[in-house]
Amino acid sequence: MPPAKGPTVRETALAARIAELEAELRARDDFLAIAAHELRNPMTPISARLELLLARARHMSGSVPAGLVHGLELLEELVNAYLRRATTLLEVARASSGKLNLQTAEVDLSALIRQVAANLLPMAESAGCQLRITVEDGVNALCDPMGVEQILENLLSNAIRFGPGRPVEVSFARDGELARLSVLDEGVGISDCDKGLIFERFHRSRRAKPNGGFGVGLWVTRQLVRAMRGEISVSSRRGAGSAFTVRLPLGSGSTVHGD
User: Fold this and answer.
1) CATH number of the domain that 16 lies in?
2) Helical H segments across 97-229, by residue range
3) Is the pLDDT of residue 210 over 80?
4) What span, in angstroms and rounded, lies between the C-alpha atoms of 127 and 163?
5) In a domain, 4, yes or no
6) What is the enclosing helix (H) or strand (E) of 81?
7) 149 and 242 assigned to the same domain
8) Beta bridge partners of 134
């Protein structure tokens, strides 16, 4: 029997290069996580102070110029948009490096879904969308509440952004051993080409506006759903709206392992 051949010089060099690239990717993700964290943290107290000032200005509406209140409201929108983007970057970095560790707890999902949807009512009203919310009472699950909150925020904000002036429906109910969350819109829909790519990282649909974001919202959403051992699917036709459905086990709880 001929002696077993070891790796060639070319194969050894290729393996070394792959290891080097993997190390560079890990370093990039670590840097991105640190940068996003440092960019977000100073804005949290600024946001809180701005919220307090705006509340006081509204309370003193008779003695405060209307332009000042409007200016504070615009500033609040800008700060919140900044915080959302920094948070998205942080979640992308964590998911990419396999560090998206979820904090599971027994959660009243029915109450959580109602609260998150209510929080986005101003966004829906600004876009001219009627928000219809149908939630079954008393659905509890072992899951990460912040993860569920981000999943619904991402799906609902997308529905509002791509279906302005049209109704958006949020429905939530028990489905056997699963919890089923659906977000339906009557917006522009998704082409067959985009449908196969929308959950990919940094993919931006051709329906998106030039300043519409990083193209990672649905990718992060899928990572969070998978982290809780759930599934996400989409049904859509171009020009006929979209329906995103998330199914989560009622006894879910784990950490993400990445793709």
Assistant:
1) 1.10.287
2) 109-119, 121-126, 145-162, 192-195, 217-227
3) no
4) 8
5) no
6) helix 66-96
7) yes
8) 171
Concatenated DSSP letters of 12-71: HHHHHHHHHHHHHHHHHHHHHHHHHHHHHTTHHHHHHHHHHHHHHHHHTTTTS-HHHHHH
Orientation of helix 9-40 relative to helix 66-96, angle to 10°: 150
Arithmetic mean of pLDDT over the chain: 80
- Measured distance CA(208)–CA(205) in Å, rounded: 5
CATH number, position 127: 3.30.565.10
Which structural domain, as residue segments, surrounds residue 51? 9-96
CA-CA distance, 154 to 114, in Å (whole number)?
15
Last residue of a domain, one of 64, 96, 128: 96
Q: Is-above-0.70 flag for pTM?
A: no
Residue 3 lies inside a defined structural domain of this protein: no
**Are 212 and 112 members of one domain?**
yes
CA proximity to 202, closest of 192, 188, 212, 191: 212
Most confident of 23-37, 73-87, 145-159: 145-159
Rounded-to-integer distance, Cα 254 and Cα 101, Å: 8
Whether residues 63 and 122 share a domain: the answer is no
Is the pLDDT confidence value at 211 over 60?
no
Question: What is the chain's Cα-based Rg?
Answer: 22
Task: Indicate the number of domains in the chain.
Answer: 2
Closest CA to 170 of 220, 69, 243, 74: 243
Interatomic CA distance for residues 107 and 115, integer angstroms: 13
Domain limit, last residue, from 79, 96, 113: 96
What are the backbone angles phi and psi of residue 98, rounded to the nearest 5°? 75, 25
